[in-house]
């Protein structure tokens, strides 16, 4: 999860930086990290709703992924 998160964050940062070009806003890194969190939450939320609080252990993998990918994405976009 650690290596995949870093690679994914860097890849998303590269793609978005190429698409945006020089027209970068001041809060773009924060917005990109929030969108990464929301995009991951869409896939994890059904497990929480169907499994209840007993399914919280399922959040360990996506949590590690979000922590590493969000850090890599923010650092690349800065």
Descriptors:
mainly alpha, 78 residues
Question: Can you walk me through this structure?
Answer:
With 78 residues, this protein is mainly alpha-helical. The chain has one domain. It contains three helices and no strands. Helix 1 (2-20) packs parallel to helix 3 (60-77).
Low-confidence stretches: none
The helix/strand class is mainly alpha
Could you say how many structural domains there are in total? Answer: 1
Radius of gyration: 14 Å
Major pleated sheet: none
Mean pLDDT: 85
Dominant shape:
elongated
Strand content: under 5%
Give the total of beta strands: 0
N-to-C CA distance: 23 Å
Number of helices: 3
Helicity level: over 70%
Name the helix and strand elements from N-terminus to C-terminus, one letter apiece: HHH
Topology:
Layout: H1 2-20, H2 28-51, H3 60-77
Helix pairs in contact: 1-3, 2-3
Summarize the structure.
The protein contains three helices and no strands. It has about 80 residues and is mainly α.
């Amino acid at each position: 999860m650690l290596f995949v998160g870093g690679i994914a964050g860097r890849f998303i940062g590269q793609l978005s930086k190429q698409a945006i070009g020089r027209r970068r806003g001041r809060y773009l890194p924060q917005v990109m990290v929030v969108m990464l969190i929301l995009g991951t939450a869409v896939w994890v939320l059904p497990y929480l709703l169907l499994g209840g609080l007993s399914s919280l252990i399922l959040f360990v993998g996506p949590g590690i992924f979000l922590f590493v990918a969000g850090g890599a994405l923010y650092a690349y976009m800065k």
